[in-house]
Design brief:
The protein is an all-alpha fold. It contains 2 helices and no strands. The protein has helices at about 5, 10-20.
Length: about 20
């Protein structure tokens, strides 16, 4: 699931975790 809101976050590593989920 691609979440643009998470991508806007400064934590890019967390964004990768979200995408892996």
């Amino acid at each position: 699931r691609k979440i643009p809101k998470l991508k806007k976050r400064k934590c890019r590593r967390e964004d990768l975790l979200w995408v892996k989920k």
